Amino acid sequence: MDGQKNGSNSLYEAIGGADTVSRLVQAFYPKVQADPSIGPLFPEDIDPVMEKQTLFLTQFFGGPPLYSDRYGHPMMRARHLPFPITPERAEAWLSCMKRALAEVGLDQQLQYAVLERLKGPAHHFVNTDE
Questions:
Q1: Which residues are documented as binding site for heme?
Q2: Average pLDDT of the chain?
Q3: Which residues are annotated as a binding site?
């Protein structure tokens, strides 16, 4: 998956590249783990998840294809199928991301652009109403 491009600049470059993606993932996962609806879906050892998320978001936002280079095609919907993802859990995930984006201090327009980019996939992963 390639990130959306604005002219010649990717969203990855616009948000500040590797440093910002790393800071975003570091800010995001404590919020996820503390969330009562989605926290239990994640393993106690969150470090491998954070590493994969960093690689994925780098690629997803238009940076180097780090995730694909290491793991092959992301196939994110298939990778999420074992987990019961409801519309409410998708929204909880997005809420955690919104708070993490604010915490890392991204410009409001960039926060909006990142959330808009993530909304489609977050809702695409929904696989149950229960």
A1: 123
A2: 92
A3: 123
Does residue 72 sit within a domain?
yes
Number of domains in the chain: 1
Does residue 129 lie in a domain region? no
64: helix, strand or coil: coil
The b-or-e profile of 99-130 (16+ CB within 10 A means b, else e) is ebbeebebeeebbebbeebbeebbeebbeeee
Read off the pTM. Answer: 0.89
Cα dist. 4→33, 42, 82 in Å? 29, 28, 28
Q: Indicate which CATH number applies to the domain containing 61.
A: 1.10.490.10
Give the residue-averaged pLDDT of 4-31: 87
